[in-house]
Amino acid sequence: MITVAVVEAATPALQVLTARLSAELSALTGDAGTQHFSAPEAATWVLARDSQGKAIGCGALVHVSSETAELKRMFSTRDIPGTGAAVLAALEQIARARGYRALRCSTRRVNTRAVAFYHRCHFQETAPYGAYVDKPASVCLIKAL
After folding, report:
1. Domain segments of the chain: what residues?
2. pTM confidence score
3. Which residues of 52-86 are buried (b: 16+ CB within 10 A; e: fewer)?
């Protein structure tokens, strides 16, 4: 069983998972993926735990506009199938409750597992935005809520 709850950015288990995410991204892309996320304390963070309470996934929701929020630092240990989907579902529920109409995110094209995950979850590729304009290594995705 997977449980997902909102947590503070300073939660130790969250810090462990985001450090693991940075290490995996560095190994895959040569970049930890932290430079485009400058205010983690302003985000709404969720943490997924297994039935024994072990942290197995996380993600953040960041305000972009009155209609759009952005996903940041999505990660699953891949210990339990469905963890990423559970994290995403929790963040989507929060976004809908706040009145957002769309969620967007960006990842590296070389991160094929993440790109496939977002496509399975009904995200569609969209024009590059913000820091991702003129960055062909990145893919930007969006999903209507």
Report:
1. 3-144
2. 0.94
3. eeebbbbbbbbeeeeebbbbbbbbbbeebeebbbb
